[in-house]
Design brief:
The protein is an alpha+beta fold. It has a single domain, classed as NADH Oxidase (3-Layer(aba) Sandwich). A four-stranded antiparallel sheet has the order 1-2-4-3, with helices on both faces. The longest helix has 18 residues. It is globular. The model has no long low-confidence stretch (mean pLDDT 95).
Length: 177
Amino acid sequence: MSSEDYIKFLTTRRSIRKYKKEPVALDQLIKVIDTARFAPSAKNSQPWEFVIVVDPKTKHDLASVYPWRQALRDAPAGIVVLCDETASPMFYMLDCANAVTYLMLAAHAVGLGTVWLGVGEKEKPIIQEIVGAPKHKVPIAIVAIGYPDESPKPRPRKPVDDIVHINRYGNRLTVSS
């Protein structure tokens, strides 16, 4: 693949909220998680663990935590990303966010769709209880995953000129022509 192919791959990933009913094979989910473990982490702490959820009741319980988690209810699977805050006390959230990104890109690479479902502070203990996680294993995301049943168009992005500064904030770098 050329560098342009890689760029195209990255820019064509979409958040998928509608899934085909077809189940995702466990080996596909393991492959995606196997890739996610190569994400960078502070001091190579690798503070992540993953709970694959395919049980309909458990998915329903997780989806009920927030109204916008309904994509999880319809997805064939969900992956709860847990982060060990004792393994990386300062950076566990960033470390595990990297793992979630790797997981989503790996899913895209094998033809699966995903949507990142964030976890707020008040939802953390509820999710821990649902999946049986200990207190120091903090849920930072639930990823709904399955075969896409939609092809969303790209969402608008801010122009590069609006977000790039050089050497010091306020020194805009003009990129577009």
